[in-house]
Structure formats: structure tokens, C-alpha cells
Amino acid sequence: MEEQTRHHRPGAPVRSGIPEHGRIPKYYAVKARIAGLLDDLGEGGLLPTERDLAERYEVSRETLRQALRELLLEGRIRRSGRGTVVAGPKLEQPLSLASYTEGVRRQGRRPGRNLIGLERFPCPPELADGIGAEQGEPVWHLERVLLADDERVGLESTYIRVARAPRLDVDFQPDSSFYGYLLDSLGISFGDADEKLETVLATPREALLIGTPPALPMLLIHRFSRDRDGRPLERVRSLYRGDRFSFTTHLRPD
Q: Is the pLDDT of residue 1 over 60?
């Protein structure tokens, strides 16, 4: 084991994911060989057809497809028209109070959002505490698809009291930063937030809006934010494509 781990790359699976008994599924061996091919092709490179790959690696089409499915779910490849190409690196989004817009711009990508809906409705009991609202008072629900260079990468739902942003439906540009609007137009700045991160599968509706297969793993973040005075401000449910996003944070001792 010592010899196997001595030269492995930091961050890569130990022993390249090979179990101690040395037996690995055929699809995994093919997957490892295709991964090497992806490195040679580079981002945007077009993979050979399934038939050509199956013949090259001397495996059945079903074995090859299982290897390709895993590479697709991991974000190493993506579909493009009738072909399959090497995907670019995942977007790294910080777990911080920085907005989605800021995080995407820092990586040289162009952020954007498509409005799905902005509705006003009476606050239900389960939402009231999180945004500091009274049950039944008017709240906004803002739902938008998240974009990076026009690629759909996530879905975001924001809930806030109408009293905190009374002209949201008039003054706010749906393709812009909501945090920027609160600060620049309303003078509201964020103080702190609680977040919970989990993996989920998208609902059929969510998968359709984001443009992904329902079986693609998603990263779901629930955020409850407070303003500088410590008052509850918003609740956000953000769903990110697991094949296009990773999240980073900086830890320090208590």
C-alpha cells in the first residue's frame, strides 16, 4: 500500500480508486483510460463516437456507456449537439455572503439570470420566522435560472417581505444582482447568514428549467440572511448543477 500511495497526486483517489484486492469493474478501467484521453484532447475537444471508443478499448457499448455516464455526472464531459466534448473546469463558488454575480465574475465568466417568475403572496407559517414576517403579511417570491456565459447552471428562489422591498416588481432588473439592488437602491446591507448544503436530485420541473437530466446530482443551498442590525432579511433556495459547480470556504479556529 505504501508503494501505491507514495506517488499519487494530491486530491486524487488513493491508488487511483483501485480496491486492495486489485479487482476493478471493467467500466472503471475504461473510464480511467478515457479520462487520460480527455487530458490529451483538452477543453472543447470532440470525443470519438461510442462505436469507435468501444472498439478502441475492446469493450461492449453498454460498458462504455456506463463509463461515459460517470464522466458526464462528474462534469468531465458534456453533450454538444450530436457529439460529446471535453468540459471545462467547474465553477468555484465561495460559501460566503458574496453574491453569485461576484463569484462568477471572479473566474472570468459572464453571470446572468433568466426570470421565471416574481409573485406576491400571503406569508405561510413555515416561512415567517426565517424572513421576520408575520403570518399572512405580503411576501415576494423571486425565481430565476442562473447562467454562466449563457449556460444554464442553477435555479434560485428568493423570499423577502414586501415591506423590505415594496417596489421590487417595478425597480428591480431581474437579470441583475439582487444583493446589489438591496444595497444600492434600498440601502440594505447584509450582516450574516446561516447556510445548509446538501445533495439532491432535481424535480422534473427543476430539471426542465435548468436543462439537465433528472438523474444528475444537484447541490442545494438553503440560506437564511440577516441585515446589519441582525434582523431576518431573506430566505434563499439555490440549486446548482453538481457537474458544473464546486464550493469553497476558508476555515479558522473558533
A: no
Which positions ≥6 away from 94 have C-beta within 8 Å?
A: 103, 247, 248, 249
3-state secondary structure of 44: coil
Distance of CA 216 to the CA centre of its chain: 11
| Range 92-105 average pLDDT | 70
Residues 109, 91 contacting (CB under 8 angstroms): yes
Q: What is the DSSP secondary structure assignment for residue 46, as one 8-state letter? A: B
DSSP string, 127-161: HHHHHT--TTSEEEEEEEEEEETTEEEEEEEEEEE
Q: DSSP character for 197?
A: E
39, three cell numbers:
487530458
Q: How far, in whole angstroms, is CA 46 from its chain's centroid?
A: 24
Q: What angle do CA 159, 161, 166 make, to 5 degrees?
A: 115
Helices H, strands E: what count in the chain?
A: 9, 10
CA distance 96 to 100: 10
DSSP structure class, residue 25: -
Distant-in-sequence, close-in-space partners of 25: CB < 8 Å, separation ≥ 6? none
pTM to 2 decimal places: 0.74
CA geometry: angle at 241 spanning 197 and 200, to 5°?
50
